[in-house]
Design brief:
CATH topology: Rossmann fold
Number of domains: 1
Strand order of the largest sheet: 3-2-1-4-5-6-7
CATH superfamily: NAD(P)-binding Rossmann-like Domain
Distance between the termini: 38 Å
Length: 275
């Protein structure tokens, strides 16, 4: 497909490291990269496997899956060595990995509430979402800075810009102190990624490394009907996103089409943050 794209969208031969690469969004980012001629390297913890069609696409474009824990600097350094040994370069980093515990309407768990939120969960969420993004940016971004060119894209959220409307998670019949809520750590991590974006964008501006973020809204993945209705009532476009609707933004930010863009946050939320 890359041969049909305008030249400034072409990623031919560029190596893109995608953290949390085996998740839903990671696989979509991978597809955007591969369809533009790039080579996606999907980094994830040992355990999950790619669906067969994604495996076939990776083989076709020369991409691969690498296993490692991005919360440990030694592991990230090892991943860089593995990428350089295999491809000889790294051009793009997409900081996509994050813990995102699902808050299902109907859950009676109170762990997500601020008053009872476990410190171990706080530490784990920040380790993956912020520490991991920092370490990968330092290691892979540092390599790009040495090479004098590269792109980092941080995957934030509309909840980096607005507070979660906890009403969409409410369950009838539960007292307030037992109502499920979106955990604090999600907002903290995603807002932190915007700070990281601006810091790195100015830090490496003279080294040829551009750093931007996207703030996506919620993706429809067969959530309960009442939850979807509550959420879509907050969105001017009156629907959640389809899984593939962020691919164009990823391609734009990773390619030369955004060559004069750094330190920015591209909001793609169906208009939710307009209200």
């Amino acid at each position: 497909m890359s041969g049909h794209l305008p030249k400034f969208f072409n990623l031919e031969g560029r190596v893109a490291v995608i953290t949390g690469g085996l998740g839903l969004m990671g696989r979509q980012h991978s597809e955007a990269i591969s369809e533009a001629g790039g080579i996606p390297v999907l980094i994830d913890l040992p355990g999950p496997f790619l669906p067969l069609e994604d495996q076939e696409r990776l083989l076709t474009c020369g991409g691969c899956v690498m296993r490692g824990d991005i919360t440990h600097e030694s592991a990230v350094m090892g991943l860089l060595e593995e990428v350089l040994a295999r491809y000889g370069r790294v051009d793009i980093l997409i900081n996509n990995a994050a813990n995102n515990p699902k808050v299902e309407p109907g859950s009676e768990k109170e762990w997500s509430r601020l008053e009872t939120f476990p410190m171990a969960q706080w530490d784990q969420d920040l380790a993956v979402g912020l520490k991991g993004a920092f370490l990968c940016s330092r290691v892979f971004g540092g390599e790009m800075a040495r090479a004098g060119r590269g792109v980092i894209v941080n995957i934030a959220s509309d909840l980096a810009l607005i507070g979660p409307d906890q009403r969409i998670y409410r369950k009838d019949g539960l007292p307030d102190h037992l109502q499920p809520v979106k955990p604090l750590t999600y907002s903290v991590v995603k807002a932190g990624l915007l700070g990281l974006t601006r810091y790195l964008a100015t830090y490496w501006a003279g080294r040829g490394v551009r750093v931007n973020a996207i703030s996506p809204g919620g993706i429809f993945t067969d959530q309960p009907e009442d939850f979807v209705l509550r959420l879509t009532n907050l969105i001017p476009m009156e629907r959640m996103a389809h899984p593939d609707e962020y691919m164009g933004a990823i391609l734009f930010l990773c390619s030369d089409a955004s060559s004069y863009m750094t330190g920015a946050n591209l909001v793609i939320d169906g208009g939710r943050t307009c209200w």
